[in-house]
Amino acid sequence: MKFNRVKYLFCSIIITMLLSLTMSIGLNAKDYNGNKLKAKYKAFLKNPGNWEQQELLKVLPNKRATIDKHQVLDYIFMNLLPLEELAQQGNPTAMNILFKIIYLTDGAYTSQLNIILGATITSHPEVFLKTLAKNQQLIVKYEMIDSLLGNLGTEFVDELEKSLIELERRYLAIRQTKNVPEKIKSLCLYELSKQIYEDRRYQIEMNGYHEIAK
Q: Which of these, 20, 46, 122, 35, lies nearest to 70 by C-alpha position?
């Protein structure tokens, strides 16, 4: 009887959590205003200064949301280059904006953002880690850490050795950081080491096991 009560309590907690998550997603879907985002993004494109970046950041969600106008995302991604260039320069606000746009996207758009953000790791690892820490839901709740760190883009497709070199560069860049959120840093290092291990093992299998002895 005691076991059954514990089992019942556990099931009740799980059901409550799922209902809460469903209600939260539903509220986001109703509340998010795509027109406001487009207006702020247009203002940013006209003058991509710090104030415009902050204003754009204010209208972006802090968790998963369904945008009411999909053409807004199409417009943003057709005009993503100025934001991408700022991120490549290590601009923390631009990187934060890109992380938060992920909350609105899926599929190819999410993949594109992962590639852009991941490319900043070797040149600006501290900014990447600190900004990622502000968007922990992406790795804790939505389990996107593997794609954020390991989606290298089309130029690395079927280029295993090239991919391994880039993953190792990212690993070393993050390992050398200081004054960053340690838990996020450790998680990224673990995930990258796992990806490097899997790719190295696959490489050995493709080349033949005799390669181990070399």
A: 35
The token duo for 165 is 């070199």
Do 93 and 54 form a contact (C-beta atoms < 8 A)?
yes
Residue 41 and residue 52: Cα distance in Å, rounded? 8
**Residue 3: is its pLDDT beyond 60?**
no
pLDDT score for 19: 42
CB atoms within 10 A of CB 211: 11
Rounded to whole angstroms, the Cα distance separating 125 from 212 reads 32
pLDDT digits (tens, 9 = 90+) for 140-199: 766 788 889 999 988 888 788 899 999 999 999 999 999 999 999 999 999 999 999 998
Q: In whole angstroms, what is the distance from residue 150 CA to residue 26 CA?
A: 31
- How far is it, in rounded angstroms, from Cα 172 to Cα 192? 10
**Whole-Å CA distances, 123 to 52, 76, 153, 169:** 25, 25, 17, 10
